[in-house]
Every structure is written in C-alpha cells, then in structure tokens.
Amino acid sequence: MSLVQAAENAETAFSHIPIIDLSDIDSCDPVTRRALANSIRDVCINVGFLYVKNHGIPDNTVNSALAASKEFFSLPHEKKTELDITKSPGFKGYNSLLSSNNDPTSMGDMHEGFEFGWEELVSKEHDQKRANDGVMAGANVWPEDLPSFREAALTYYHAAVELGKKLFPLFALALDLPEDYFNDKTRNSAAIMRVLHYPPQAGPVDDRVIGIGAHTDWECFTILWQEPGIQALQVLNTEKQWIDAPPIPGTFVVNLGDQFTRWTNGVFKSTVHRAINRSGVRRYSIPLFFGTDYDVKLEPIPSCVSPERPPQYEVITAGEYVKERLKATYGH
Ligand SMILES: O=C(O)CCC(=O)C(=O)O
Ligand SMILES: [Fe+2]
User: Fold this and answer.
1) I need a surface site. Which of 95, 99, 147, 299 has the fewest CB within 10 A?
2) pLDDT per residue over 44-81, tens digit each?
3) How many Å lie between the centroid of ligand 1 and the Cα of residue 235?
4) What superfamily does domain 3-329 belong to in CATH?
5) Hey, where are the domains in the chain?
6) In angstroms, what is the span from residue 107 Cα to ligand 1's centroid?
7) Is the shortest distance between the CB of 287 and ligand 1 below 6 Å?
8) Which tens digits make up the pLDDT trace of 116-157?
9) Residue of 51, 193, 196, 278 with the most ligand 1 atoms within 8 Å of its CB, for mutation
10) Which spans of this chain does the record mark as coiled coil (predicted)?
11) What average pLDDT does the segment 291-315 reach?
C-alpha cells in the first residue's frame, strides 16, 4: 500500500501505544531492516507515539542523569534563576514553574526545566558544529555549584543523540526513501535536551494549570525518558480520548513532532500529548528533541503527495518553524 493510501486508511482511534523492539537496529540485513522499518511506519501513520525497548542505552547512564537532575532542582531558587533561560541567548538554562505555556488555552506549565544543546563532553576549542543554530544559537550554561551535573547530563545526551541518529535511517526506510535520505539534512542535527521536574498537583486541579499543557512537539521526533512508577503522560487519540502513556521500565517513548508531519505532508502523525502529575510525589522526565538542521526546508517528500493529497503546509525552514513555536510558548 502506498504511503498516501495508508494515511487515508488511518482513521481508527488507538487505545494503546505500541512497543517496538530495537534489538535489530544495528543489523545490516536488508530484510531485517525492512521489517523493523515497516513496524515503525505503521505506528507513525496510526499513532505517532511508540515505546522502544532494547535501545542500547545503559541504565546507569539514565540513572546518573536522573540523580543529577534531582540535585539540580533541589538547589535554592535564586541559584537556579542565576541560570534563567532569559539571561543567555538561545534558550539555554533554567525555566521556572509556570514560565512556559505549551497550550494557548492554559495559564502556564506546572513544571520547571533545564535546557541545553550540543556540546562535546570534552570541550573542543573551536567547535564549529553548532555555528548554524539560528534562533537556538548560544552556548550552554551549567550550574557552578554542581560540577557533576554537566557530565551526567551530557553523557546521557550523547547516548540519546546516538540513538536518534540510528533512528533517522529507519524513518527514511519507513517512508520508502533511501536510508541516507536525511544524512545531508542532519549534519548539525537540532538536538535539544530538557530535564524536567513536575511537582505533584493535589486536590482539585485547574485544568488550565497542569504539568505540561496539551501540545505537539516541534522537531522530527522526541526521545523521552520518564521516571518509572509514576503515571503522568497522556496522548490524545483521534476520538479525542486521552490515553495514558505510563512509564515502562527499560523503554523510552519516541513521539513524532511537527517537522516530520511537514516532511510527510501529514502522513506521519505529530500527536497531541500532555502531562499531569497527580501521583503525590515529584516526577522527573527527560525529553531530547531531535530535528533536522535549522537551515533545511521542510519540503514534502514526493511519495507523500498525490493529486488527492496535495501539499498541506507552507514550505518553511526547520529553524523558522522552531522560532515561531518558541515565541508562542515562551512569549519571547
Ligand atoms: O514529561 C513528559 O512526559 C512530557 C514532556 C513533553 O511532552 C515535552 O517536554 O514536550
Ligand atoms: Fe511534548
């Protein structure tokens, strides 16, 4: 079935989020890769959200990043706001409770976060990799009082980036494209990580002030780690029902973002989601947003366009798109 036909048939509402086994992600066997890509393709067209298991990222890498995040968020408020996102160019650093708003009908997101982008673990003197970051250009900032935070956060960052780089060829294959299709579009791949802390919300909760309001992600896909044992994330299906996406130990959530919807002329879904922490305890999560280079145009892939499905989106660059969304979310 063509991609366009598969998208036209994708009307059924999903009630759970599939798990994809990535044990074969490094396989060179074309039949194995095709089978893996086919299962990814189905989920991308029908759900836009999946879990991945056997992803190769060691538990201790994640656990160290979690421990470091907990330490960071327990710093005194004034220490955290020294690194406030508004104090440096390129949206790097700390954003406090209610300072972002992902849902325009809401009043603010009930989480605090810390945001950073590409940086070598051992800094290179003239690292040109990030020279082309448009609105996100700007060096990372790190808490001086917590020297171990940078190493733990960047170690996990690079592990997740490696996983993201292995997923792009599979997404290409899922779109009936050569596996290297995205290579020249992801040379300086946008890769922004946020560590997030959601305080518990008890009692009657105003629907307009939840952990993170209903939104879609902006890049091609997100690799999200959620703290085990705490349900908070929910995904909106085509029947407008909120489906729980509980943490499953040993997995990451991978969800598609708006850049992929634009590349695929709406064939791949960028699914609306939100998080509410009613667990009674603090909750931590760590998304990595993975996109194409910011100067790349989000042009529809020919196999996703037909006379019945003409191009649905104005062609803009990935950077222009992210800039629009940043303005709407942070108001600056
Ligand atoms: O914390 C979560 O589970 C979701 C976070 C999220 O959706 C985001 O940061 O875009
Ligand atoms: Fe999100």
Assistant:
1) 147
2) 999 999 999 999 999 999 999 999 999 999 999 999 99
3) 11
4) B-lactam Antibiotic, Isopenicillin N Synthase; Chain (2.60.120.330)
5) 3-329
6) 17
7) yes
8) 999 988 876 666 565 566 666 678 999 998 999 999 999 999
9) 196
10) none
11) 94
Ligand 1 touching residue 217 (CB < 6 A): yes
Residue 296 pLDDT: 94
Q: How many Cα atoms are found within 13 Å in the side-chain-facing hemisphere of 49?
A: 23
DSSP β-bridge partners for residue 113:
95, 196
- Provide mean pLDDT across the span 199-207: 80
pTM, 2 dp: 0.95
- Please report where in the chains the tokens 């303005």 appear, as a residue: 327
Instruction: Write down the residue that tokens 């160290």 correspond to.
Output: 64
Expressed in angstroms and rounded, the spacing between residue 226 Cα and the centre of ligand 1 is 9
**Using a 6 Å cutoff on CB, does residue 196 contact ligand 1?**
yes
Mean pLDDT for the stretch of residues 246-259: 97
Ligand nearest the Cα atom of residue 114: 1
Strands 19-21 and 49-53: parallel
What pLDDT, on the 0 to 100 scale, is given for residue 51?
A: 98
The DSSP line for 208-222 is TS-SEEEE--SSSEE
138 alpha carbon to ligand 1 midpoint, in Å? Answer: 23
The closest-lying atom of ligand 1 relative to the alpha carbon of residue 245 is 3
Which is it for the CA torsion 54, 219, 113, 165, positive or negative? positive
The string of DSSP letters for 21-87 reads E-TTTT---HHHHHHHHHHHHHHHHHTSEEEEES----HHHHHHHHHHHHHHHTS-HHHHHTTBGGG
